[in-house]
Amino acid sequence: MVDESTLRGALELTVDETNLTGVGRLERGKVRDCYVAATRRTIVVTDRISAFDRLIGTVPFKGQVLNGISAFWFDKTRDICANHLIELPDPVVSVVHECEPFKVEMVVRGYLTGSSPTSIWTHYDKGAREYCGHALPEGMRRHERLPQPLVTPTSKGEVGQHDELLTGAEVVGQGLASPDEFAQLSELSLKLFAFGRGLAAERGLILVDTKYEFGRLPDGRIAVIDEVHTPDSSRYWYADSYETAVDEGRDPRALDKEYVRRHLAQQGFKGEGRVPVLAEDVRMEASRRYIEIYEVVTGAAFEPNLEPPLERIARNLGM
Question: Please, are residues 186 and 106 in contact by the beta-carbon 8 Å criterion?
């Protein structure tokens, strides 16, 4: 684990945004700056953090953690689904195949949980017993495991816009995927989730829910893109204290950015209105959690790169 002084010093080394030249057309996402050129895409994973579909600040080493974890999972899941990764020339940079993306996020949920307005628990708590076209049983408790994992698609909102929940029929009806394509995306999502849940269990973790994005490679194959099983796209709980927490009506001990969501919610922010400023201690605690999940999931020690990031990125990309 990275020590306190290193974390505090890294508060001044976060990557908020990049403006590289000579590597392609810039497309800025919520947390990634993408540079598109011909058949390749250069992705810079910044330290920006989003919650409730809003950008709220930066977290030290977040980009390094996300880039490293995704690379780990891309390697582990390549026999389940093709992916877009070509190489990692820098701790926060991935060079990938340019794919034609499906304009839908494939969210897989294994538990009745969440705090956002679109979460399955929020809907259930308000009396809804159908979610994204799936019937939900009566009498479930918050954080309880669902009878089986559910594929609950959402639209892909632009930066600052909220994602919208969809049923499978709506995905097809809106032209986001054909019936056959949606069936393939659902099957791949459930296979990836099952594998991720199994490996997480070996590490003493519960993979609670996650989201996948898919695209078509230049050769026509469907590939998983963007990120896989990172703290940004996934929720993890510690398995050893889960049942006790649920029985006592408490939130399970989590290892993901739900910490930041809860902090914001306690201040009355759930995506609407002015974004609160994240205190340094909150940013550092979020960083600790990102680093911890890297080490627990990958089984390797996190080695932070402390070079000035913008100069390092440019050098590693040969600029």
Answer: yes
The confidence score (pLDDT) of residue 52 equals 82
Q: Give the pLDDT of residue 7.
A: 94
Question: What is the mean predicted confidence (pLDDT) over 149-176?
Answer: 87
CA 298/CA 45 separation, integer angstroms: 19
What is the C-alpha separation between 87 and 97, in angstroms, rounded?
10
Nearest to 111 by CA among 123, 126, 102, 121: 121
Helix ranges restricted to H, the chain? 4-10, 62-76, 120-125, 168-173, 179-202, 242-247, 258-266, 280-298, 309-316
Q: Kindly list the distances between the CA atom of residue 177 and the CA atoms of 113, 150, 265, in Å, as whole numbers in the listed order.
A: 27, 18, 34
C-alpha 79, offset from chain centre = 21
Q: What is the CA radius of gyration of the chain?
A: 19
Q: What confidence tens digit (pLDDT) does each residue in 200-254 have?
A: 999 999 999 999 999 999 999 999 999 999 988 999 999 999 999 999 999 999 8
Give the number of other CB atoms < 10 A from CB of residue 138: 6
Residue spans of the domains in the chain: they are 4-316
160 versus 153: which is more confidently predicted? Answer: 153
Residues 262-287 pLDDT 10s: 889 888 898 889 988 999 999 999 99
Report how far apart, in Å, the C-alpha atoms of 218 and of each of 96, 97, 98, 178, 205 are: 11, 8, 7, 19, 36
CATH topology of domain 4-316: D-amino Acid Aminotransferase; Chain A, domain 1 (3.30.470)
Instruction: Break the chain down into helix, strand, coil percent, rounded to 5.
Output: 30, 25, 40
Q: Which amino acid type is present at position 231?
A: P
Contacts for 126 with CB less than 8 Å, ≥ 6 apart = none
- Interior angle at CA 154, CA 201 and CA 264, nearest 5: 70
Determine the Cα–Cα distance for residues 34 and 31; give it in Å rounded to an integer.
10
